[in-house]
Design brief:
Elements (H helix, E strand, L loop, with lengths): L5 E6 L4 H16 L6 E6 L8 H9 L3 E5 L2 H5 L11 H9 L4 E5 L3 E3 L13 E5 L8 H7 L9 E2 L6 E2 L3 E8 L4 H16 L1 H6 L7 H12 L5 E2 L6 E2 H4 L8 E3 L3 H5 L2 H13 L3 H5 L3 H7 L3 H12 L1 H11 L2
Parallel strand pairs: 1-2, 1-4, 2-3, 6-10, 11-12
Antiparallel strand pairs: 4-9, 5-12, 6-9, 7-8
Helix pairs in contact: 4-6, 6-8, 13-14
Length: 319
Amino acid sequence: MSLSPYIIVFIAQGGELEIKSLLLAYSLRENLPRGQRMLAAIPSNPGAEISESCLKIFSKLSIEIHHFKNEFIDRRHSESPGDWMSNKFESLLSLQTDENILFLDSDIILLKKELSFLQGKIKLAAKPADVRTRLDWKKLYQLAGLPMPREEIATTVDLESGPPYFNTGVLFLHKDIQQKICKSWKRYFMLLSHTDTKEALDFDYFHRDQLAFSLAIQKNDLEVSPLEEVHNYPIRHRKIIHEKAVFIHYHDPGTLAENPELYDYLIRLHKNNPSFGRILRKSLSWYLTLVRAPVLIRISLIFVRNYARIRKILRSANH
């Protein structure tokens, strides 16, 4: 039994996500029917704007554009790691569509020509997380005012069982449950973002969107149809692409450069859209990916991610 039509939604945002979203869009258009609706959700918050070159490539690929305001970011006085994960529920809440949605993280590439795994009467589908995060799960649910789930699921890489915990990079959301799950998702994300919660519970703050998603599932008493690992494939853990892998979750340019099948999408996108080169030049790590130098890419990633700390050390050394 096939599902009713769905829209594929992903985030496009200034910076590295601009490059990743173009790669995702290119892989989707290369593999799926031309009639498949695809939508790039772009936050209108300051600093999140994408380039005209990016918009033109999206237009060429027949990607619809949806601008939304990330209210969570708008209310923050300072930015913390993982804050922009709020784009997921903020974009979906703003859509208010009467169609089903397949939401994809931008750091994903599609390898298959069809999505036959989306079959049957699915309301909500996600893949269990790769690795179980370390925290006091009982305390988490107590802080949220929710009972502990009776069900346990195993993560796909470390195979540890525990309360439902999913990777939110590939999500199918039926039109009937989109608004209520996303409202709860936002509510618990905000709870986990509070300073008091951070002090009371030691948890992976960057990936708090996944913990908030677990709480939202419990709040709404929703059953999640578990996707197989090949439907959201953790290539950084597995190293070699499984022959049945559908969506490859690669995360960073170094991983992409190490895998010829993924790297080929970057080369083809650049060859067919020369303006993509101008976008790549904004990021040292991604520009190095063109010459396929994984070691240099990883060094540049370390530098970029620790730039503020390195600058502080150098300043101290000069005084």
